[in-house]
Design brief:
The complex is a heterodimer of chains A (288) and B (137). With 288 residues, chain A is α/β, with parallel strands linked by helices. Chain A has two domains: 94 residues; 176 residues, no CATH class. In chain A, the strands form three sheets. Chain A has a four-stranded parallel beta sheet, with helices on one face. Chain A has a two-stranded antiparallel sheet with strand order 5-8. A two-stranded antiparallel sheet of chain A has the order 6-7. The chains are: A alpha/beta (288), B alpha/beta (137). The complex binds iron/sulfur cluster (2 copies).
């Protein structure tokens, strides 16, 4: 989980005491502020909503500002400014504050679990090498380290037997959250076959290939060839597991095979612990 | 209560999954419609950040959300620890609708929404005991 944060809201005020913004200017300004990471409210009513959060209230005020709690509302007259100038005016207000939108942002790519489908089997936790998944104290699967997830890699969604893992920014359904068809469920059966084809799981396949490659490389001690061989293995894996659509960069940046082995083992242990914990909680509940 | 739920628009700032012309068209039309509405940069980012704004949204059942697939939006609120209220707000899917259709769905009166109609149909079928099945656009 990333730190909980809260920040100011920008209010585009078009109520009493302000003349309306021109339509195309409003759209341009809203898009720029949203891309800067700021939430916006468009207020046409006469009163500003009271809020505990800071509000930067922008409008064509002509010198008269609406009534508001001055401890949270900061007014700026934007008459005559273009969208770029308004954004830099807002930047000035934010500068020096600890507004979270000032910090570096990342493409929010991470798995989202559909708990209406999830059976808590822990396959995803066992599969992911990057500690994205964890379990709650009562043994329920949870996405805990979103920012560890490899951007554009939906691999874990392909190991979930229940089609319960979504990546909302993925291009196609049902991984993007689209409704699940009977075809999708049928494809799950195929996934199991793909997994079997790869010898249990793709990491096992990576390890096997690595072991063979390593025994050759230790004799040859040829780093360049080793690198080429690894690349060749990864390409083969990618071809075999094309359905999984792991981006090449992710495959290429996988840790060493030894690390994969130990990570996979750790993940399996965490999954087993979580399942044991869940069984305990369920027994305790049913014993009550 | 007005005749429409409050609108929350998600700008999906980090990806092209919602076409730019749809996002721009929806913002433009909502602006022209003269309604008050709220916009957030990216619900996915806010979910990962456990942004308190999600809690405020989840505590207000009278909202209509413009974003992507309802199943994904629902999951993002659950992941943030603030499941959407029941009965669930309507989610208008800007990945599947064009700007005109999405705005019309956002602005339509409460009793003309598919949810209200579905509810009404269920009420008729089950003589008032029907439960809502989640929401679809
Ligand atoms: S693999 Fe799917 S069903 Fe199993 S715990 Fe993960 S999300 Fe739930
Ligand atoms: S909730 Fe949907 S529309 Fe909003 S940022 Fe995430 S993927 Fe984009």
């Amino acid at each position: 989980m990333i730190a909980t944060k809260t920040g100011p809201r920008v209010v585009l005020y078009e109520g009493a005491d302000a003349s309306p913004l021109e339509n195309s200017f409003r759209v341009e300004l809203m898009a720029k502020l949203l891309e800067r990471g700021l939430p916006i409210s468009l207020a046409r009513g006469n009163a500003l909503n009271s809020t505990e959060n800071k509000q930067i209230v922008l409008g064509n005020f002509g010198g008269r500002f609406p009534e508001a709690d001055s401890s949270t509302a900061e007014f700026r007259d934007i008459a005559g400014l273009d969208a770029v100038a308004v954004v830099s005016l807002v930047e000035d207000v934010l500068a020096g504050t600890n507004d979270p939108s000032n910090t570096k942002r990342w493409k929010p790519w991470f798995p989202v679990i559909d708990f209406g489908r999830c059976t808590n089997c822990m396959q995803c936790l066992s599969f992911c090498l990057f500690d994205v998944y964890g379990a709650t104290s009562d043994g329920k699967i949870q996405v805990q380290n979103e920012s560890n997830c490899k951007t554009d890699c939906p691999a874990c969604s392909r190991v979930c037997p229940e089609v319960a893992i979504m990546f909302p920014k993925y291009k196609a359904g049902p991984i993007n959250g689209d409704e699940i068809s009977t075809d999708d469920v049928r494809r799950e059966g195929m996934k199991v076959d793909i997994s079997a084809l790869l010898g249990g799981d793709i990491y096992a396949m990576l390890r096997d290939r690595s072991a063979k490659a390593q025994s050759r490389f230790s004799k040859e001690r040829d780093d360049e060839r080793a690198l080429k061989e690894r690349q060749r293995c990864l390409n083969k894996l990618k071809a075999a597991a094309g359905d999984i659509e792991i981006p090449t960069e992710v495959l290429a940046s996988l840790p060493s095979m030894d690390q994969i082995q130990s990570k996979a083992e750790q993940a399996r242990q965490r999954a087993a612990q979580a399942l044991a914990q869940q069984a305990k909680s369920t027994n305790a509940d049913s014993g009550q | 209560m007005t005749d429409q739920p409050r609108i929350l628009y998600c700008h999906c700032a980090f990806a092209q999954v919602i076409p730019k012309d749809v996002k721009q068209g929806v913002l433009e039309r909502l602006g022209e419609a003269g309604v008050d509405f709220d916009c957030v940069p990216d619900l996915c980012e806010m979910s990962a950040n456990r942004d308190p704004i999600l809690q405020q949204i989840a505590e207000n059942p009278d909202v209509r959300i413009a974003a992507c697939f309802p199943r994904a939006v629902r999951g993002l609120f659950v992941a943030a620890g603030h499941p959407l209220p029941q009965p669930e707000p309507e989610v208008v899917n800007m990945r599947m609708l064009n700007a005109e259709e999405a705005t019309a769905a956002l602005l339509r009166p409460r009793d003309e929404s598919p949810l209200a109609q579905q509810e009404e149909a269920q009420t008729v079928e089950t003589t008032g005991t029907g439960a809502r099945e989640g929401n679809r656009t």
